[in-house]
Fold these 2 entries.
Entry 1:
Amino acid sequence: MFGLTAENKYLPKVADFYQNKSIFVTGTTGFVGSVLLEILLRCCPGIKTIYILLRSKKNVEPTARKEEIFSKKIFEKLKEENEEVLNKVHVMTGDINLPNLGLSEDDRRLLIEEVSIVMHCAANVQFNRPLRFMLENIVLGLNSVIELCRKIKKFEALVFTSTAYSNCNRIGVTLKEEIYRLPFRAEKFIEALKSNDNEKLEELVAQCKPPWPNAYTFSKCLAENLIMDTATDLPVAIVRPSIIINICKSPLPGYEEGNTGLERLCIGVGKGFVKVVHADPNCKLNLVPVDIVGNTHILAACCVGLKRCSTPLIINVTATDNFHIKLSEYVETLVEVALKRPVPQSFSKLTTCILEPSRYMYSMIAIYHHYIPAIVLDGMLKLFGGKPKLYSLYRFFDNIMASYDFFVFNDFEFERNNLERLDKLIHPEDRKDLSLDFKDETLRDIAKKTPEVCPFYDLKIDKRSPSERQKIIQWRYMMVTSIQGIFVLSCGLIIYFLFALIF
């Protein structure tokens, strides 16, 4: 519970709490991490240093990856107003998948001496990755972070980014802001991981009931249990966001990076590429803007650091009524926006997107709308020396969406009392930039702003002019329609001749 007194109702101003403090942040290349970094730099200009953990990726060095982060559109305003503040961000070369986060002795010593607050946002969010990989990435990574926190001399707070779906295996109940315990202590899983005892690991996981839909959500649940088993004496906050979407307020309303599962669907529908999805149109999505998630991290660190609440503080960062909407409403909004402002590099003419709950019917409709045209167009590409890719793209999309089946066929309810309590603690002077109240916002309001600010809506990414692109879209639409017409006619003729032979 939060500690409120009549004399000291609000938290101090966030800028004052972070004044002259150094922070260690992981996961800054991701959507949440990038937004969190921007908010820290913008709202806490007196912060001393922000150390970010980066690894080399695809032959790009960590320092170059830092520049890639700052090249994102959300940092443009900050660079215009106070570019020097970016110099407070220093790269620590490392990897959460490695022991001791892959840090050098010098970097590790520096963190131990300088840092006060740790925000651990890094995690692989692909739902189709194997169990061992996810456990090593999420659980062992967090274990290394906790070990580091215990050695930090000026340690004040650890904020861990979990997910509201860490206990999604409990269908039909309201998921509370508490840690749901597993039948075994987290150390048992870690021992099996470190000893490479896969049989023991699988046996432990199999006894955790009811089963989780994927390794990601189970790993987050185990990570929360790890905190409960090993870090209850530390000031810790666990932030659990639901489905993260665009920024709703600051710094750039409507901004999204297009690398989440839901945004891939958004782009696919907007480009006229995805015509049908296997999903329940009445399934309710629980959406939360990413800036609300970033604000929660910053305020939660302040709250646990000042001992204004119990620890671990668990916060479900989940939807208000306006963002707890049917999947059909979400898709309708996407189509409405894309019809008014076509998405660059569009594949075909945008009409609508069918949400089909029956697997059998979905397969039939997908064959008609996706696979038959893809096979024919791939054949034409190959004939003219091109590289066939449409069929494989549709297969890739189906595999991605299959990993989300559990979430587009089940509804979830979340307790969000701690989020509302934390919002009431915000200092009046911080409310403009760090409010957690978004009940007056709507998805449609955010979606209307999306084309102006999102990278995947930037016309520069399309190598063709709007008129050339329109000609291609029209040509593909005619080709696809013709292929579908021929397919239907062929099926009709086959059925006719079969009946003729029989009767």
Note: Residues 466-502 form the longest helix (37 residues).
Entry 2:
Amino acid sequence: AELDDVIALRGVLEPGAAWAAAGRTLAPEERDVLWARHEAAAVAGSDDYRRLDTLLHLTIAELAGIPSLVPLVADNRARVNAWLDTFPLLPRNID
């Protein structure tokens, strides 16, 4: 039940954050940070991927312009990562 809750909440928070961020006119510096976070996560190895992916998602939440959204996304990402820590890092699981 807890895992279902974590995943369902993520399915609401993260698309909502992306939608809100996409609806804003971002300053060039904001676009640069977002793109840099995307590029870093896209090429990250297994040791760094989850941390860099989390930074990308937190950046999107920040760029949504809804201050109270950021701690919600951060807490949910921490819960997602805690669950992911329980899965062995086998190639088939990563795929």
Note: The helical segments are 2-22, 28-43, 49-63, 69-84, 91-94.
